[in-house]
Amino acid sequence: MDMSGARDDRAARGAPAARERLVVIGGDAAGMSAASQARRLRGPGELEIVAFERGHFSSFSACGIPYWVGGDVDERDRLIARTPEEHRARDIDLRMRTEVTEIDVAAGRVRARQVDSGAEYWTSYDKLVIATGARPIRPAMPGADAPGVHGVQTLDDGEALLDTLARARGRRAVVVGAGYIGVEMAEALINRGYEVTVVNRGTEPMSTLDPDMGRLVHEAMAGLGITMVGEAEVTKVLTGEDGRVRAVATQDAEYPADVVVLGIGVRPETGPARAAGLPLGPHGGLLTDLAMRVRGHENIWAGGDCVEVLDLVLGQERYVPLGTHANKHGQVIGTNVGGGYATFPGVVGTAVSKVCDLEIARTGLREKDARRVGLQFETVTIESTSRAGYYPGASPMTVKMLAERRTGRLLGVQIVGREGAAKRVDIAAVALTAGMTAEQMTALDLGYAPPFSPVWDPVLVAARKAAAKVRDGAR
What we know:
Keywords: FAD, Flavoprotein, Oxidoreductase, Redox-active center. By secondary structure, the protein is α/β, with parallel strands linked by helices. The chain has helices at 9-13, 29-41, 65-69, 84-88, 155-167, 180-191, 211-223, 271-275, 323-337, 367-372, 425-434, 438-441, 458-474, and strands spanning 20-25, 47-53, 93-96, 98-104, 109-114, 120-124, 127-130, 134-136, 149-150, 172-176, 195-199, 227-229, 236-239, 245-249, 254-256, 259-262, 266-268, 300-302, 309-311, 316-318, 351-355, 358-364, 377-385, 396-404, 410-417. The protein has 3 domains: 9-135 and 267-337, FAD/NAD(P)-binding domain (3-Layer(bba) Sandwich), CATH 3.50.50.60; 149-264, FAD/NAD(P)-binding domain (3-Layer(bba) Sandwich), CATH 3.50.50.60; 358-474, FAD/NAD-linked reductase, C-terminal dimerisation domain (Enolase-like, domain 1, 2-Layer Sandwich).
């Protein structure tokens, strides 16, 4: 449909032309955080806010979907922070089931299409926020779109998966990929009583860890009854006479499946932004300045899973799609759009996850990250406990630390253990952000009592070992 002469919907709705308009593309974490913060700073009489969301839900926690599917969260609506009606009550014109298909930067407008009716119209903007998120990677192979094959990114995806689980004739599941989503979904399916096989291209699960630490995760998954197939790539999804999935195939084997979950990661959803000529980084995400303004465009901002962020350890752009970043991006954008001032300086790559009672955490660089950029480093791995060894409930914990050779600068930390292990990575995240050395970390005044840690916290034990290794190397 040629809409070049279509009326802008501001005129069609009779909105005052003098009012500045903010258009937000995306109704989840980054987009609606930006809209809400802008509304706090500027009232409806000063700023009109129009937001578009192509799905059925707004402001939801995608990170909680595996726990909803697994039954830890008892209902979908517990994952929704704010409904469309609640946003509208705050004078944000949130238009659901409406996707933006085109951004016309020169004219300052976007083309919107109503998903259910197909109706299209243009909406002009004075300021634009792009928060289009990410899409699950769906490999280009036969059968990838067959009924029973699911990506897990939105609440719609979660509902579709739960529907398949309720209707499946058998109890066999295959998870493709063993990153955060793959591992979490494997646990969720085990909790649902499924026989679970995880097929992974890497030798060990959790490629965000070094292989020696990933091995600990592998052992824990095997202990849960999850079959791990490493160094294997799914080449096709096999279907039955009814067209539904019946198995996945690698080059060497077939694995029966009544449901398949794709857990091989996500890509930034930047189709309209790319077509509009907005700047993208090496990973396909939008590039912004510290204020989250799209580079080279005064009145366009972007945040969330569709952008690349500065890695403060590497000094390079990375693609790190996490809800924590998205909410911070939205706050920064909304503050700047609303007339204030805020920046997002970057990340150090902190993430946590779990497999049942095994906690997994990392921040900073892995060994291969450091090697890739030419850093020389020392590594140490220590075994400790979550509490004083004599206190009831103390559980084992493994901490791996990387420090730069000669300078001793902290480069990265990985932790695998039981209760109380994962959040200890926050100590290292703060140290990385501050540019501390392993030696400086040893003097950190951390809280101590036997129910919470040994007298030397495991992270500080690793720092002592790393500092000593750096000193020995210097000598």
